[in-house]
Amino acid sequence: MIFPDEYKHVGVTKALPAGAEELIYFLTDYLIEERENPETGSSEYAFYSVRKSGDGLLRKVEALELIASGEKVVKYGSELNIKDRALLIETALKLCTGKVNTVIFTGVDRHVTIVHDPDPSCILEIEILDVAPPEPAWLSQVVKRLEASGIFGDLQVRFTENIIDLRHFEGDKTVFPCSASGLEGKCLDSDILTENGHLLVGCEISKTLFEMRFPELEYSFINICPFKSDIVVPSKPFITRCCRSEKSGFVNISGFEGAVVHWGASEYQVAEAVRNLVNRLRKIG
Predict the structure, then answer these.
(1) Over the stretch 209-230, which tens digit does the pLDDT of each residue have?
(2) Angle at 181 between CA 180 and CA 186, to 5 degrees
């Protein structure tokens, strides 16, 4: 796949350099020639790589190598955020049918880039591993807001969700950690228990609190901490959260690399965790 990075300039011209004396901007590694099809009167395109020499802002063109032209090249009809690399690859994949293998994109800032032979394997999937309510899950809300802002655009990453709905455990005999969840049942921070046989749905801290408050009671326990849970389990590289700040950072759970943020993490901390995780996964891969 050819996908110029942010430091590679894609030039557009209606007339190719005629010879080695022609000069070109020093960052231009690729060139798009726009020309009119004499039979249809419509525009068609050719895509070249540029070999150049010299120093300074303008450099000598040594050679042009044709990569794709004619019916192999199409131009996407709308402006896109060309900083969102995953979006461009996914869009190019839909257009690269038949003989087409190259798509030209124009950004909202009128700059141009190109995707040649799009490769979906370059897009890294990260799973958002969380519990709900709140609905939608808090971590999912944060990641989606950040993704919409474009902050992950250069990472070639897409997010999937693995959200465990705690409402499946609601009931008169169920105990949840916090009344702020709005779940139907009893809560450690607001209810007094006097009978055996409750089901505690929480983490190790919840378990410790339960046993401190009600040491005489017998109960069963479902652990929702991703470090020890049988139900909150990743299926791919992931980001999750934990109420213990010392657990923040890189982890490996069930054979999958992931990042953990604190329950009170800011948007900045979540964005940083995602970026650090992607960089780690790219190195490992």
Answers:
(1) 999 999 999 999 999 999 999 9
(2) 90
Quote the CA–CA distance of 134 and 138 in Å, as a whole number. Answer: 6
| pLDDT of 182 over the 90 cut | no
- Three-state secondary-structure class, residue 114: strand
Three-state DSSP class for 164? strand
Please give the structure tokens belonging to residue 209. Answer: 């609190």
pLDDT, one tens digit per residue, over 10-36 is: 888 877 776 556 888 898 999 999 988
Q: Which two tokens stand for residue 161?
A: 């969700």
Task: Give the sign of the dihedral formed by CA 256, CA 262, CA 263, CA 266.
Answer: negative
d(CA 77, CA 183): 48
The structure's pTM equals: 0.87
- Kindly list the distances between the CA atom of residue 263 and the CA atoms of 62, 175, 247, in Å, as whole numbers in the listed order: 57, 20, 11
Q: Which residues contact 95 (CB under 8 A, 6 or more apart)?
A: 74, 76, 103
- Euclidean distance between CA atoms 16 and 121, whole angstroms: 34
DSSP secondary structure of 182-208? --SSEETTT----SS-EEEEE-HHHHH
Starting from the edge strand earliest in sequence, which strands make up the sheet with 256-262, in order?
Answer: 157-165, 124-132, 238-242, 256-262, 249-253
H-helix or E-strand spanning residue 268: helix 267-284
* Segment 73-76 long-range contacts (CB within 8 Å, at least 24 positions apart): 73/44, 73/45, 73/46, 73/47, 73/100, 73/102, 73/103, 73/104, 74/100, 74/102, 74/103, 74/104, 75/43, 75/45, 75/103, 75/104, 75/106, 76/103, 76/104, 76/105, 76/106
Q: Residue 18: what pLDDT?
A: 67
In contact, 226 and 239? CB cutoff 8 Å: no
